[in-house]
Specification:
- Keywords: Hydrolase, Metal-binding, Metalloprotease, Protease, Signal, Zinc.
- The chain is α+β, with helices and mostly antiparallel strands.
- The chain has 5 domains: 76 residues, Nuclear Transport Factor 2, Chain: A, CATH 3.10.450; 80 residues, Roll (Nuclear Transport Factor 2, Chain: A), CATH 3.10.450; 143 residues, Elastase, domain 1; 179 residues, Neutral Protease Domain 2 (Neutral Protease, domain 2), CATH 1.10.390.10; 126 residues, Jelly Rolls (Sandwich).
- The chain contains 12 helices and 34 strands.
- Strands 3, 4, 5, 6, 7, 8, 9, 10 and 11 form a 9-stranded mixed β-sheet that branches.
- β10 and β11 form a beta hairpin.
- The N terminus is likely disordered.
Length: 712
């Protein structure tokens, strides 16, 4: 049994129970407004919140002044650390779904409805008697799917569903429609799931778009990284016991494939000749994305219920793509099966489509389609910043490593999206088409929001960040000062999860983002000012939401400013002895402790990873600037209840920028503390991520206790 942190009832729950109610709020507020950060909620508690909200759905209908024929179906509940909540609902009218009628209902800590966000809350007036038969509507929908510009040559097209719905257009017009879902294979063998809305009175196809979102990559990128795997029956499988993420080998077919396994838990070689190498990239990408959402955003996985996702590698033959299909990630091996498309950007981007699907549900056309695609770019970039790999340095380009254009240029530029020759820099009201192709392609209409993200993060003008040169103009000739990408990502995630709905436009994105910035950082914060000015800079007009006129004097964005190299002899690690508790460190709640269950090397506090005796993964990390001739030193003590002398059931690693520099297991127990020294001179002058991680299996504890960590 693991330690009990002094004076913390929640720490006891975390140590002894698999699913504590609330672990922590996502790190969000510099001004003392952390109470508005999203609270992390365990899976069973989240299900209870949804059930309780559904029981109150009739009261929500009345609070919004709707009729007795209206009803709400609760999809999700997001809870803030102060107890307020945001209930996402779908609307029905006389049991007919209202497409575009979904809402987010806001409640205070007492449960009182305080407001709502949504595109349409008016009365339903459309006649529910169709003039076109269901069979005719289905035929029209199938024909529209086959004619879909990018889907010509669609193989095996078949209707998977056909439902009568009330469709609310962007201008508020109501139409009775058939929602026809068609499945098949695109001409490049990507699965297709086209949704077409057919007017039930005229038979005209109103909207058509594919729900399978694609991305691209060209290689094996992450290098040597730690992985959490599962051991059973003498074999390791590429399945993370904490997140549930797992990776299968489709064996160059279109099947689900079998979970990848290994005899010694040493996966891949970094070469495409080893089939495991692509699996390492895919699994690392899935786990890093899960960790980003959990640690930074307070979200418990894609579905917010703790479930992991499957990643399929080696899909089909000569398949040059990757995609998220609503349940899993799939990666092809590229041309000639020589370049698996498993780059980290791809995983972060595509799995973020899953988060959008399970929050705002932004449809894939018009403004909403652009917001959908840009969300994956923004939060996918966030995953890259979070991972901070030396093999894939964070930047404001998308697909920069894959060279799909064949000339070394990225797929998309966030500082000036129009540099790709197709994307928009500035928003216009008519920036969309009837489907997800041509001028309305979400990859192009995503441009303004990507531009907003860069401007709000880094500001306008020319600058060099992480060795890359950017030059970002504004659409109104203004000057924008950035607030840092980390704040802007948190603001955008809050906007996505608590403000936007399926058919939101750029104007709603502006309103929601400013309100989210106020809630997280305050109306007079630099973050709020940056958000507001960046939306004006991409030509989205002002609405009701405004920051305070007493915004502070802008200060330069810290990201591009080089960090001074520490003076030799001083410790570059903040709070390396842990005597100041969590100060300087981010990660799992609980392992930094003064509990007497394990002695510190010096003082009273230490980092106690493991010691649970049940399936668990814990870590702590911080950014450290390495001095010239830098050396990492630390003290570690390992004890275990495992009896095996041959199998490493429980493991710990120390990594620098994702590269393992020390590893321990139940096979390396010590007699008290031992010191370890690692040469970091190769990182001199660089700011790196120092991370300590431990993973345990389902029984018999192993404790990895670290103390007095220094980089000098």
């Amino acid at each position: 049994m693991k330690r009990i942190t002094i004076g913390a009832a929640f720490a006891l729950a975390c140590a002894t129970a698999a699913t504590p109610l609330v672990v922590t709020g996502a790190q969000a507020a510099d001004h003392g407004g952390a109470e508005k950060a999203t609270a992390f909620v365990a899976a069973d508690a989240h299900a209870g919140l949804v059930k309780a909200a559904q029981a109150q759905s009739d009261a929500f209908v009345k609070a919004l002044g709707l009729s007795s024929d209206d009803a709400f179906v609760v999809k999700d509940v997001i809870t803030d650390a102060d107890g307020s909540s945001h209930v996402r609902v779908d609307r029905t009218y006389k049991k007919v779904p209202v497409v575009g009628g979904d809402l987010v209902i806001h409640r205070d800590a007492s449960g009182r409805v305080t407001g709502h966000d949504g595109t349409f809350t008016g009365a339903i007036t459309v006649d529910l008697a169709p003039s076109v038969s269901k069979a005719q509507g289905q035929a029209k929908g199938l024909a529209a799917a086959k004619a879909h510009k990018a889907r010509k040559g669609l193989d095996g097209a078949a209707v998977a569903g056909n439902d009568l719905v009330i469709y609310i257009a962007q201008d508020g017009t109501q139409r009775l429609a058939y929602q026809v879902r068609t499945t098949g294979l695109q001409k490049d063998r990507t699965p297709s799931r086209v949704r077409t809305l057919v007017d039930a009175d005229s038979g005209v196809a109103l909207r058509s778009f594919d729900e399978v979102h694609q991305g691209s990559g060209t290689g094996i990128y992450v290098g040597s990284v730690p992985l959490s795997t599962t051991y059973s029956g003498g074999t390791y499988s590429l399945r993370n016991p904490s997140t549930g993420n797992y990776t299968t080998d489709a064996n160059n077919t279109t099947s689900s494939g079998a979970t990848m396994t290994d005899a010694d838990d040493r996966w891949g070689t970094g070469s495409n000749s080893n089939r495991q190498s692509a699996g390492v990239d895919a699994q690392f990408g899935a786990d890093k994305t899960f960790d980003y959402y959990k640690t930074v955003m307070g979200r418990n996985g894609i579905w917010n219920d703790g479930r992991g996702a499957r990643s399929r590698v080696h899909y089909d033959t000569n398949y040059e793509n990757a995609f998220w299909d609503g349940t899993q990630m799939t990666y092809g091996d590229g041309a000639g099966n020589a370049h698996p498309l498993t780059e980290l950007d791809v995983a972060g981007h595509e799995m973020s489509h899953g988060v959008t699907q399970n929050t705002a549900g932004l449809v894939y056309y018009g403004d909403a389609g652009g917001l959908n695609e840009a969300t994956s770019d923004i939060l996918g970039a966030g995953v890259e910043w979070y991972a901070n790999l030396s093999t894939d340095v964070p930047d404001y380009y998308m697909g920069e490593e894959i060279d799909l254009n064949g000339n070394g240029t990225p797929l998309r530029y966030m500082d000036k999206p129009s540099k790709d020759g197709r994307s928009y820099d500035c928003w216009t009201p008519d920036m969309n088409g009837w489907d997800d192709q041509g001028a309305g392609n979400p990859h192009f209409t995503s441009g303004p929001l990507n531009h907003w993200y860069y401007l709000a993060s880094e500001g306008s003008g020319s600058k060099t960040i992480n060795g890359r040169t950017y030059s970002s103009p504004t659409c109104n000739s203004s000057t924008v000062t950035g607030a840092g990408h980390d704040k802007i990502e948190k603001i955008w995630y809050r906007t996505l999860s608590t403000k936007l709905t399926s058919s939101s436009r750029y104007t709603a994105a502006r309103e929601g983002a400013i309100q989210s910035a106020i809630e997280l950082y305050g109306a007079s914060s630099q973050a709020c000012a940056s958000v507001e000015k960046a939306f004006s800079a991409i030509s989205v007009p002002a609405g009701a939401a405004k920051c305070s006129s007493t915004s502070p004097t802008p200060t330069p964005t810290p990201t591009p400013t080089p960090t001074p190299t520490p003076t030799p002899g001083s410790n570059a690690v903040v709070n390396g002895g842990f005597e100041s508790g969590q100060t300087g460190w981010t990660g799992t709640s609980g392992p930094i402790t003064a509990n007497a269950g394990r002695a510190a090397h010096s003082g009273s506090w230490k980092l106690w990873l493991g010691g649970n005796g049940t399936t668990a993964t814990e870590y702590e990390q911080q950014s450290v600037t390495v001095p010239s001739n830098g050396k990492l030193t630390f003290w570690v003590a390992v004890d275990t209840a495992e009896t095996s002398t041959a199998t490493a059931y429980d493991k710990a690693t120390v990594t620098v920028n994702g590269t393992t520099v020390a590893s321990y297991s139940n096979l390396t127990k010590t007699s008290g503390y031992v010191q370890k020294a690692v040469d970091l001179s190769g990182y001199a002058g660089q700011t790196v991520t120092l991370k300590l991680t431990a993973t345990e299996d389902s029984s018999a504890q192993t404790s990895f206790v670290f103390d007095d960590i220094a980089v000098q």
